[in-house]
Amino acid sequence: MQTENRQQKVLVAMSGGVDSSVTAALLKNQGYQVIGVHMQLWNHGDDNAERFGSRCCSIVDSNDARRVCDKIDVPYYVIDAQDVFKDKVVDYFVHEYLQQRTPNPCVECNNSIKFSYLFQKADELDCEFVATGHYSQVVQDQAASVSRLYKSIDPAKDQSYFLFGLTQKALKKTLMPLGGLSKTMVRKLADSFDLGVSQKPDSQEICFIGQEGYKGFIEKRVATTFRPKGIIQTVEGTIVGEHDGLHRYTIGQRKGLKFTVKDTENFFVTGYDAANQVLIVGPEEQLFQKTLIASRVNWIRPVEELHGIRCKAKIRSRHDEAACRVFQFENGTLRVEFDEPQRAITPGQAIVFYENDEVLGGAFIDRIGTA
Amino acid sequence: MSAKTYLDSNAGAPLRPLVVEKLLSVFAETRAGSVLLPNPSSIHAHGRQAKRWIAEAREAVAASLGSGTDPEQVLFTSSGTEANQQAIRSVLEPALSRNGRATKPHWILTPVEHDSVLQMVSWFQEQGGEVSYLPVDAQGLPHSSELENLWRPETVLLSVIAVNNETGAITDLAPLVQTVRARGARIHVDAAQAWGKIPLDLKALDADLVTFSAHKIGALAGVGVVWIHSGVRMQALMRGKQEKGRRGGTENLLGIISAGAAAALVNPEKWSEEVGPWRDLLQKKVVERIPGTFVNAGLAPRIAGTLNLNFEGVEGESMVMALDLAGYSVSSGSACASGVVEPSHVLMAMGRSKSQAMAAIRISLSEALSEQVCEDFVSALERIVSKIRASQGIGQEKGRIRVELGKEPQVKGHAN
Predict the structure, then answer these.
(1) Can you give the pLDDT at residue A54?
(2) Is A69 a catalytic residue?
(3) Theoretical Cys-Cys bridge with B19: which of A12, A230, B260, B261, CB 3.0 to 4.6 Å?
């Protein structure tokens, strides 16, 4: 296999972190012709200079990636993806919150940036493959002539949830060499390759949100007219408090709610009445629901049965997958019925379907319930 | 990996062999067995020797700038950037304090200046000055007739690039100098790319401040030059006794010696005869073989070594990367600190879109090529352009795109 791959050109998406650095070094060792590419996605401005190093988007990260490429002796380029990132990821992120949806920008970034914009660049540079440092496994199933996507062998690091939007076209050209490794092993490899990044912390938060937090980020960009204050009600219509703009609350949230009446300490956000800018709260049991409607579905590979697919689903990245049945309507909308009620089904989040360790596909949650 | 071909001499020309020889001879002279670089400010024999080398370099530089140029008018700095910024501040700073708050001093410059000049715009505006841009035509050249519209009683300085570093276009300086002179203001000429490439006669030109950069003529990087018209007072950016108090800091001895050695070798006519035919051949082959080629500033008078190209339907930063992967070092726009390619402000001022301005490539030669290199390069370019076009959805099905040299491409409808 390795000899077969000799001198095939692969563009490695390099953030400057441990994972993508090890990805590049592994592929270089396997005989690929590696080209390191760092995407400049966002300019953090002067406010976050201390955290991000400087005015430009992560010069420190770009320099780390450059050092790794020098170390393994491969060419390195930085490409400007700021316009497309702002358009496809940041603006989407803000708009979703203004529509009382809780977005997942990493999913959108994978769909629109890493596995589309970057693929375009790879094609222009005549690369056969694009590699990323995701903890997920791509398998080319020759027998069935499909590409399949599987979870990482390291359940703590598995990133397959964020990758459900990958198409067959993209998967055929994708390498994710870390899918079969644990994070511990990857750090060890970084050390043994002497890449100088083995101790860099994992990135945790949304990359373009600085110290102001997501609420501050949205409020800096959107006039108060579009995010008015309003009242908090129970589902029965009892007014129990006031809110500071619906974008500040997500379903299942308890912290930060300002109640004006008693016996509300166990209330959670359960929904919104967007037309009246009302926040709906209630006791925890109201958070548990069995059905949801989702759209913008992507099936990674053809699914066996389009009516009533039995599988498991995750409704957010840190959710224990639950058994369900998926019905697909002709317009592409999905109705998902869980065997057991699930806590805090949240519009805007992705629902991702699994069959054992294989990712079947996913969609974006639109509504709780069957309507 | 095959050998790399360097086609980026406007960024930094190769060291000339005679310059290297000169530097090695300095080592031999200073002290046998080990390398000694004396401080030119020292009064002892070693110091005097170093001072003499600098004086010789100054004379050689002055001689290369035209007949009857006084070496005392030559100021050495650390770079072309420093030379430009010191020249600009020397005129603008006194104007700011002279005018006080009553009127705002006014600076005119073109939008196609080098970044080291453009960087001073925000500084000047922060200090209370006002800035106007002298428009350029589609070839990137400014015209003195346009100065009339912009001129104010408060105008104190015009900054203009003599030869554009990206396109090689040559500005007609004389009418600009005359207009500015007639109005009693000062003119600063950034001639970094003109040195050694077009004949210079600074005395006849009669500009106030003219700046140069030594590594563009095959000397070491780290030396800039300001030629100062008599009567123009310089402001020191760094205070110190060196350079007659106009530029503090121990002199870059090796750099300055190399600048003198390279200056002694400049011969614009000979260089143009040697390099020009190769640039013309490259251009001819590219235009003939790659449909939809657009030669930026192709209708302007250009220095011999520079060729700036756009290809219809090719956008973004991939060109320079793909050429690098194929073994050719050319440049495009400029890069910011993180390494991201920024669209060329020069081409945008000439009417290119942002993504076209990112896709342009600049080929710049300092010496003759071979037939083989020329042919191989054009073949690689041909292959890369069709690959990127196919990838960006501009296929061959459109047929040959005919473009006249220097005219806008006739085929419309590419992305953006």
Answers:
(1) 39
(2) no
(3) B261
In the structure encoding, which two tokens stand for residue B126, read together?
Answer: 């922060």
Query: Cβ of A76 under 8 Å from any chain B Cβ?
Result: yes
Same-domain pairing of A243 and A161: no
Q: Is the pTM of this model over 0.80?
A: yes
Q: In one letter, which amino acid is A106?
A: C
Are B317 and A79 an interchain contact pair (Cβ–Cβ within 8 Å)?
yes
> Which band of pLDDT confidence, cut at 50, 70 and 90, is reported for residue B2?
low
Q: Do strands A258-259 and A307-314 pair parallel, antiparallel, or not at all (unpaired)? A: unpaired
The sign of the CA dihedral B122, B127, B130, B136 is: negative
User: Residues B325-329: what's their mean pLDDT?
Assistant: 96
B335 touches chain A (CB under 8 A): yes
What residue ranges in B139-279 does DSSP mark as E strands?
Answer: 155-161, 186-190, 209-213, 224-228
Catalytic (active-site) positions of B: 336
Q: Within B290-370, where are the H helices?
A: 318-325, 345-349, 354-359
Do residues A156 and A362 touch, judged by C-beta distance below 8 A?
no
Of A62, A121, A124, the CB nearest to B339: A62
Q: Is the pLDDT of residue B409 over 50?
A: no
Task: Dig out the tokens for A229 from the structure.
Answer: 């204050």
A62 lies in which domain range?
2-192
Q: Same structural domain for residues A232 and A342?
A: no
Best interface-test mutation with B: which of A12, A28, A59, A77 has the largest number of B CBs within 10 A?
A: A77
Structural domain count of chain A: 3
pLDDT band (50, 70, 90) for residue A49: very low
Indicate whether A346 and A302 sit together in one domain.
yes
